[in-house]
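for the writeup, i need someone to sanity check this before i put it in the appendix. the sequnce is what the collaborator sent (i think, or maybe the updated version? ugh). structure was predicted straight from it, no edits. if anything looks off just tell me and ill rerun, i have time this weekend
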Amino acid sequence: MGTGTNAPIGVIDEISGQASITRVDGSTDTLQIGSPVYQGDVVETGAGAAVNIVFTDDSSFAISANTNLEIDEYVFDPVTEGGVQNFSLHQGVFVYTSGLIGREDPDDVRIDTPIGSIGIRGTIIAGDLNSGEITVVEGAIVLREPSGSEMTLAGQYETARFSGNNTGISNLGVKTAEQVIQTFSGIESVAPTFFSSVRDSVGED
């Protein structure tokens, strides 16, 4: 489904290792800092790689090695500061920081995974799709399994796990900042601001 415009929706802000992008027309480019990103693109990272994309609404999406991120839909109106973001992520570790889209309605930003979907309301979230664990860093999210079970997380570092077999979503309680840093260390090279803010949260130790 075309948007009628060829304007980029984002840019590669940070990259570590080898990553590529597949365009809607099937062409593939090797990524570097400053590479444009368009609706419909699929970003793929190789072994040991990581990428951070910054979008036009100031949201960002950092992904770890051996991951594909599909940008299914991205619509942003800078006048109203509204829009829609829909992503598909198949595996790996990620950190998503919302921008202007998704501040009010969690249905405006959705991340679909093989084990469930995540609706985002003005927040920073971190996920490990290899274990099924999703952690709120700031704000609130709504987790939904294909079976229809749903859970809202709103506490800092509150974590839940998708079962992956439609048996429900398990609330795992609150992680420590150290656990968050350890779990998501694979993307620290491309998301330094996220990690410095997590470290600041334990600052007085």
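The chain has a mean pLDDT of 91. The two ends are 52 Å apart (CA to CA).
thx in advance!!
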